[in-house]
Each structure stands twice: as C-alpha cells, then as structure tokens.
Amino acid sequence: MLITLRPDADVVAVEAALKGLGLWTTRLRDADGAARGLRVEPHSAPAALATLRALPGVADVWRAPSPHPRVDAQAGAAVPLPGGAPLLVAGPCSVESPEQAHAAAALAAAAGATALRGGAFKPRTSPYAFDGHGRAALGWLRAAADAHDLAVVTEVLGEQHVDAVAAVADVLQVGSRNMQNFALLRAVGAAGKPVLLKRGMAATVEEWLLAGEHLLTAGAGTVVFCERGVRGFDPETRNLLDLGAVALLKHAYRQPVLVDPSHAAGRRDLVVPLAAAALAAGADGVIIEVHPDPGAARSDGPQALDAAALVALTATLEAHR
Amino acid sequence: MLITLRPDADVVAVEAALKGLGLWTTRLRDADGAARGLRVEPHSAPAALATLRALPGVADVWRAPSPHPRVDAQAGAAVPLPGGAPLLVAGPCSVESPEQAHAAAALAAAAGATALRGGAFKPRTSPYAFDGHGRAALGWLRAAADAHDLAVVTEVLGEQHVDAVAAVADVLQVGSRNMQNFALLRAVGAAGKPVLLKRGMAATVEEWLLAGEHLLTAGAGTVVFCERGVRGFDPETRNLLDLGAVALLKHAYRQPVLVDPSHAAGRRDLVVPLAAAALAAGADGVIIEVHPDPGAARSDGPQALDAAALVALTATLEAHR
Amino acid sequence: MLITLRPDADVVAVEAALKGLGLWTTRLRDADGAARGLRVEPHSAPAALATLRALPGVADVWRAPSPHPRVDAQAGAAVPLPGGAPLLVAGPCSVESPEQAHAAAALAAAAGATALRGGAFKPRTSPYAFDGHGRAALGWLRAAADAHDLAVVTEVLGEQHVDAVAAVADVLQVGSRNMQNFALLRAVGAAGKPVLLKRGMAATVEEWLLAGEHLLTAGAGTVVFCERGVRGFDPETRNLLDLGAVALLKHAYRQPVLVDPSHAAGRRDLVVPLAAAALAAGADGVIIEVHPDPGAARSDGPQALDAAALVALTATLEAHR
Amino acid sequence: MLITLRPDADVVAVEAALKGLGLWTTRLRDADGAARGLRVEPHSAPAALATLRALPGVADVWRAPSPHPRVDAQAGAAVPLPGGAPLLVAGPCSVESPEQAHAAAALAAAAGATALRGGAFKPRTSPYAFDGHGRAALGWLRAAADAHDLAVVTEVLGEQHVDAVAAVADVLQVGSRNMQNFALLRAVGAAGKPVLLKRGMAATVEEWLLAGEHLLTAGAGTVVFCERGVRGFDPETRNLLDLGAVALLKHAYRQPVLVDPSHAAGRRDLVVPLAAAALAAGADGVIIEVHPDPGAARSDGPQALDAAALVALTATLEAHR
C-alpha cells in the first residue's frame, strides 16, 4: 500500500497522523528528491481507506487488490461444527481399532468435545512407520462419533481417497505437508464440504490464505484455518506455535480459526497452557490429541492427553465460555 | 538423557511406559545389534528421575548435569516488582521529555501498572535514528515514576552506563541485541540488582537460560526472562511471538517470565489479544508500550497503545486476577 | 550416537581423541555421578565405527540404525542424465508453446545442457495464476528436447498425471511443496523412473532423505536430491540457499545432488555466482531457468537467464570440467 | 522502490520490460481502479535509474534514499589485509599459550595465510567455559604473527578492551553476538582501524549493513563483512551458511566480504568445500580455524583443521588465484 502526497503536504504531519493510526511508513522520493509517497509496511494495523484518503495532505491511496477475494468474502464465518465457541475437537492421532475409537470418542465427549478427530490415513516421515488402517478406519471413526453424537474431522492424504473421506467426514482436513499440494486442494474443494486447512511448516499467512482461496475456488464449503506450529530452531518444543498469526487471522482477517497445540508443542505438559493461550489470542477452538492409553498409541503417544490431563483442559474451555 | 536397559528388559514395554509418561525416545543398539539404551528427545515432558529408574527393565538414567544451576536455583521466584500477578509494566518506547514521561506514567498507573518502562538509552538499527536522551532521561523517568508510585524498569546499553542506570532503576533491562553481550552481562550482574533479560532474536531457550546464568554468576538479583518474539519470516507481524517458550520457562523451568507483545507483533491491533495469550500461557505479566500521543512518539509510535486502547488491556488483566 | 566408557577410562583423554577426529561430545553421568557415556552431537564429522571402538577407554558405540537404508545403498550413484559432471539442466519455468520450447531447448543446448527442464503442470501459490498447458505441453517439451538431443526433466503435480509425465520424461521431478506428499511419492516411485526430489521449504536433511526413502521403497530409480533454498528471513533474496546441506549430502552421504540457484536467489544477477558456489560445494550439476525472452515469460521471468547471461554460466561450468 | 506510470502507459508492456531487466513487480491501483504504479520487490536485480526512467510508459521512479550512505561509499574497497585475493586468515579459536600461538602461526603461514586470527577474549555461551587468556594472549598473538610476517585479526568483546586490542590488531573483529551491540560498535569505530564485522545470528542484510554504517559513522576504517552462518533448523550443521547474502554483498553492494566456513558448518569434513563455495560466490577470502593439535584445543577443536586438512584448503585457494 502506498499513500501518495499532495504537493503542498506537510509530510511530517501526515506521518504523525499515520503513526497515530498504527501505520509504519517509509518515505519515497521522486527524481527531484521530493517526498511523493509513504510506503506502508505490512506489519501495520488495518485502517479504513476512507480515513486515510481524508487525511490532510494525502492525495490518494494506491493498493494491490486482495489476492484472495473468496477468503475475504467468508470473513465473519463461524467454524462449521456443532456447539458454541470455544470448540473442542478431540481424538487420537491414529484410529487404531473400533474399540480404541470408541474409547477415545467417549473421552472426547466427556471432555466437552463436539467433534472427533482421528487419522485413518496418516502422513509419516518414514515409509516404515504405521500409516493408518485406511478405509476400514473411516468406518470405525464414524461409528464411534455417532455413538457419542460427535461430528467427524479427518485428514485426506491423496486425491484417490477424497470420496471415501467425504462420505464419512463432516469436515475434511488437509495437513501441513499438503498445504500447497494443489492437486489435492482441487480434489478436496470439489467435494463441496467444509475444510480444515493446516498451515504449512514455513508458510506465510498470505500463502496460507491463498491455499484457502484454492479450496474455495474449487468449491469447498467454509475453510477453517488451523495453526499447528511452524518450523522453529529450539529442540525443546517440537514446533513453534505462532499465535501472532492466529490473532492476525481472527482480528484482522476475521477468519474461522482453530489451533492444534498438541503438534505445536509436542509436549503433553504444555498442551493445556497453549490451548488456553490460543483461545485468548482469538482462536474459535482447539483440536487436541487424546488417547485412552497414550502408552499404547501407535503414533504421537507422548503428546496425547489421557483422561486425567483432560480435566484441566475442560476447565480451561469452561473459563472461556 | 539416556535410559539404559537391563539385559532382560522388554524394550517395547519400557517404550510404552515412557510414552505414557510423555517421553519421546529412540532406540540405541550396541555392536551386536542389541537395544541397550533409549535416547530421550529434548521435546519430552519432564519426568522424575526416581520414577524413570523404578520402571521395570530400566537399568539407569544417564544425564548431563544442568548447565545453569544458578538459574535452576531461582525456580519458583516471583518477579521482583510490586503488585500481584498478572503484572503490568507500561511506558513509552523512549523517554522524550519530563512532560511526556509524566503523562505516560499517569496513563500506566491508570491502567493498573505497578512499574514504568521507558528508554533513556535506545538501541537503534540505524546510526541516524534518535537514540534517547541518555542520563537526563533517567532522571525524568524516575521522577515520573515516583509521582505515580511506580517502580522503574529501563535498559542498559553499555558497560559505562551501568552505574547511572542502576542508580535509578529497580530492574535493569538487557535488550535482545545484547542477550549474549557477555561484557555487559557481567557489568550488569555486578550491580547486584534484578534484571529483565530479553530473549535474543534467534536464541534457543538453553542459550537464554545460560545468559541468565552469566548474570547470576556475576551477582545479579533475580533474573526475569522476557519473551519479545524471535525472527520470523512473515512480513505481517514484526516478530514471531514464541509462547511455547513462555510455557516451557514457566511450567517446566518455573522461572519468572514477562512477555512483551508490543515488540512481538509490532501491531497495535494485536497487542491486547497477544497480552491475553501470554498470560494464559503462564507469563507473570506483560510489558507494554504506551504513549499519551502515539502520533508524536519519536520511536515505535505505531505499536504504542493510547488511553483508549489501554481500556481493553486493563480489562484483560482484570480477568486474570 | 553414544560412546560408552570403560570404568577405568581417562574421560578427558577420550574426549580429546574424539575432538581430534572432529566429534562434538557431551558427557552423560549415571546415578552416582560417574561419567559413563559421551553423547555425539549431530553436527560432528563422520568417523569409522571401528576407529571409535578401538580408542583406549571406549567400551562400545551405541547407535540408532539408519532410518533410510535404501538411500544409503545408492551412495556413490551418478545423476542418471547424459553427460559428465558438472551437469547442466536448463529450460523455461513454464512450457508456453511449441516455439518457445524449441527456442529454449536451442538455448539450453548451446549453453552445454544435456537435459531440458520445463513445467507442463505448474504449482502456483495463487489459484488465479497461469498453471501450465498440461498434457499438451508435455508433447511440446519432448519434441523440443529430441530436436536438440536433450533428456527431459519435468514436474509431476498430481497422482493422476504420473503416467502421462512418465511417458515423456527421463527424470520425474517432485517439487518442494510436494516433498512430503506421500501419496504422490508412492505414485511417482511406482513409475520406476529416476526422480529429482526438491527439498521442502523447511525440511531437515533427514526428512529429505526419508522422502527419498519413500520413493525408493515405492520402486523409483535413482533419487537425485535438489537443493533450491529454504525459507529465509531476508527479503533481498527469494529463498536461502543451503550449500551446507549440499556439501553434507555429497561429502557425508555421497548422494547425487543438483542445485537450483534460480529459485534460491530469485535474482538473475546472482544465479551464476551461486551456480559456481554450488559446484564448488560438491553438487553434480545445476538446474537453471532460461528463457529466450524473459520479458515475455508467463512465470518467473525476472529470474530466467537469457542468451547473454548464459555465456557466463557456460564459462563457469567449463572451469569445473 | 515504486515505478509510477504515465496515464497512457501500456502496463503489460512496462511489466514485460521490467521482467526483462530482472525486476519482480506488483501493480498498485488508485481509488478508481487504475494501475498507477508498480511496486518493485526487494529480491529484484539492480537496475540503473536512468534505464528505468527511460522506459516507455514510465513516469518516474520513487525511492527511499539508501539508509547506509557511508557503506555505499566504500563500494569497491579491498579487504585491508596483505596479499591478493583470495585471502586466507587462519588461526586457532582461542590463543592458549605462546607456544600454541607460534605453532598455529606457522601452520597458517605454511598454508598461505597472510593474517593470523585467534581469540584472546572469547564469547562463551556458558559462564563456566574457558573465555580466553585476555590481555596476555594479545601479546602472544602479536609475537606469533610477527614471527611469521602475518597481520593480526582478533575480536573485541567489551568497550573497556578496545584500546588494548587496537594496540596489537591490524583488524578488529566484532563477533556475531555483538553485531548490534551499539555501544561496542561506537567504541570500536572510534579506534579508527579496519573492522571485521560478523553477521548476527538472524540479521537481515540491511541490518548488517546498518551495523557497518554505525562503525563507519564512529570513525572505523574499512568495514569488512564476514558471513558465518545464520541460525538454521537442521541439527547436522551447526549454522546455515548463507552464500546468497555473500553474493549479494559482493555483486550488488560491492563490499569487501570474508566467509567463515568453520563456524558455519561446525564440521571439519565440510570446511574445505564450503570455503571453495564461498570463494565461488564472490568472497574475497576465508577465515578458518586451524590448530596444531585439535584434540588439545580448549574451544572449537572439532571444527579446527590440522596440518593434513590444510593441504586441501591450500589447493582450493590456489585454484582461485
């Protein structure tokens, strides 16, 4: 964004007015050295165009049109899941058996969840790791959710599974590693259902919004943005949870936002405080890994909450209602 | 940390028990291919050594001693400022005049602050930017604080100013850019006062704790760790606020922690939600840039809160009491 | 890796010997405080196990088995493209027309390339950007390559296009955004051809090698690792070229490695020096965007080299022969 | 930078012309939706202002003045050390004794170095680590250098040591951790000598140039920029060597540049290939840690080169002459 100046503008006064509105600016000078425009830095607070154009000394405001009009159009949308904010989506990393799915659904429901998460298809860094029970697990997940009156959120890993997942899920999840898998975004969007779009490991907010635009262009229902931590450099946490991005998405872009503190921290001891922080930053809810017996989990056991740990989470959510 | 196994250990069972305790492990094998130890990854939940050593199949636990015993010894310490948690430290980026300092102190006190912040010596990326009024400003800051019954937190930029700053400040601040300026840490520590130690732009938590150890070794009072965002890659926020590190410092290391959401976001519109998130993550309080007239500020005006914006902050703090 | 110590070991002497071999270590102590092991940090130089086990005072070396045995087994493999090192793979970002493909192939061949690159299917951050001419472009690319006796390297974006791409390409490319698109890796691997695997935006070297393991497990021919810059924080270069990773892959893992300096820098003025640097670091060759008329390019024109700029590149490659 | 358009401009043609010159641009529109300007992205190739202003359809070019005029004014300066490019500065991490300094100087000289490096004052992450022999070591370093006809480069850690270091050093080094220690920059600059300025762990190129501007403003002789790796996320290399920044500094800013591959990789096995890569990217020389007996080194032994390893380095340097 560029604020152009009238020839007679008092530049210092315009800069002060913009500073007062929360805008960081840099002066641009023409060939003669005259200050002609003020470049607005991207980490500025939003301001109404009419307000800016009405400032004494301002000639006009030049802007690039938003690259994601469909995302902008869903501003103010709610997360398309039952229950009021803050929402809890909970469940195991992997769906391991009908029994485990039922036990996890019972845990989730008891903790106040309105939706069950769980992976039938699992992305795994190693080709030798357990990658889910696939289509069978989709059925177990749906049955467990129905038995406890929960909606289902589950990940699609490949284009050829979109139909199968869409047949059981209320919300289709696209994982971090696929945030810019455009073939998958197109296929998932075409299913016409709401989508939970996790942020890529090093995606800027604009890249993330544009991935949402891909989904909406392809026909998706509401796109819910889910922060789960970006690649950091500190070994004591698994990822670096970016709640500034969450605040930005909610307060500046007014998008539906969930946060996954389980993957962000990778540490069971930090899941509840980070869930509380996410809600305070503006998230509409949290998505949490829970397991009836974390020691027996086939993936992500160390970060899963058990029944005891869920008590603190439930109390946190209650405090935000 | 390494968990060594008895020759007859059921390795899978030991791994399950550790997973149940929140520990991520990797098997280490000896020359004959036998599993002899389980390396514990650094993003594991803390566990009592006695618990680990008592697990069936576990022979011993081998560890590196903590590299920061003095920091560990202050676990549980309170932030050495008046008032109960959550604390509010507020004030202008730069101390610009006696009048501005008084107006800012009045604002801070009205918002519930118990300490006044403000820079007499300012680190500036450019040598041509305003870098503070120096020793004179220290006097203005102290007088303004005294008039409103506030403590003073202010930054020391150079070894030769330690005495002057220590003469007026209740807590000496070491800035991000000086977190590993060991000559300064030694000089500041020798003043024997509490220190607010901001995290370096790309410092790991361990490097930060070790900088605290430098201060304590040199004689500092309580070291308070202050997160202010690390270097990120997204241009829409000025820095990347790492509340996972805050949760870690508070819940795992039990250190006194403040958070500076003003520098983290660099955006006035996100300061209050990020302050709320910081408290939820476990911070003992927040340090906020406020200015009676942000448009007139000589530095950081766009991120400073004015009287109107402070109302929301005060409400947030009240909700946490 | 952990080096265990004999009860009578002179720990300082063992540490000195390891330091002499280029290993960074940390002492681990047992419940009684005795030093029992030396943890080897991952940024250590490689050392023969037999050498380590033969050091006075060393009891054994405990290790995790390599997680990527198939990648390890291709150590020493050449890049499966015609011509000797250093290789040049060159061509346009997008295949725009039969004429453009021919002109680009002529440029590439004249510059010394033995393979033509060019996108028929293009990943685009925005859904509104040109995303390639698809299947038609594959034919144009093959014809242009054949006319100049060049091999073809081109990207596969979706599982449903693997067969079509495999029918024309000598080497299938998996892009950065799909490095952990495991469904695609499986489908591409099943085609049984060599694969050029670009590094993900924030992938560790181990995650990258494991993505190669996914390909090899699925049946791929030689996997060639291609560094193209990771997400950085400096706006003056588009990405941060990690030649340390290139040196590591070549000198420690002995893998076939190409480097893409065009995407790394995003700047035409830096492509040639970074190509030279890549070869010096150990790359087997470079992959470069060229265009007969960069001003007319439908994507990445500003970073494409034209005929004039290719002269310097050719000279650089000659100097390395 | 902003390129403003004439009312009758053919915007597509202007964009094509800029693309042809290597510029990435984004269209800015006024209140009526008309394209009025093209914002130039910072990762564009440099272009002469006169060329841009002469393009059909271009009205003017608006720019922010360079924030570092004194750095710009030293464009084209040579590294102020004896000998021609490529330069080798070599020596131990710490100066440990007169004997070690002499042996290291002999090694360095034999390898073709014209300057000896070595720390008398050492920054150490832990307060319990060896931090150098201080003033005594300065004398040992000078004597060893003189005996082998070498210049001396050594680090200043604190303001109070500037005079002592300036008395023996030909070039004063400011370390990464102090790149934005403005009190030290001022004191070091005031000594009026050339300065080797290492890049901060997460400093942008502009912040680094501005730190150089601080030095020059304070009176420094030539400022030499030294890249030594930024904070990365991969544990197999100690830091992430940014040769894109080196190419940028040399080819776009025309500054004197050295590279320190020893700290970048932290791995002895990668020092020589990364030194070669640095020279190919445009560096004027390299600064390397060497030690007569790395196993006995009191700091950084695992990354130091010994006599045998130096042979390959010398050959690399010869190839660049």
- Total number of beta strands of chain A: 12
CATH H-level superfamily of the largest domain in chain A:
Aldolase class I
Give a short account of the largest sheet of chain A.
8 strands, parallel, barrel
What kind of assembly state do the chains in view correspond to? homotetramer
Name of the CATH first level of the largest domain in chain A: Alpha Beta
Low-confidence runs of at least 5 consecutive residues of chain A = none
CATH topology of the largest domain in chain A: TIM Barrel
Count of alpha/pi helices of chain A: 12
N-to-C CA distance of chain A: 38 Å
Helix content of chain A: 25-40%
Give helix and strand order of chain A, one letter per element, not per position. EHEEHEHEHEHEHEHEHEHEHHEH
Q: Quickly give the structural class of chain A.
A: alpha/beta
Please list the strands of the largest sheet of chain A in the order they lie side by side: 5-6-7-8-9-10-11-12
Largest interface: A-B, 63 and 63 residues
Q: Which geometry of chain A do the CA atoms define?
A: elongated
Radius of gyration of chain A over all CA atoms, rounded? 22 Å
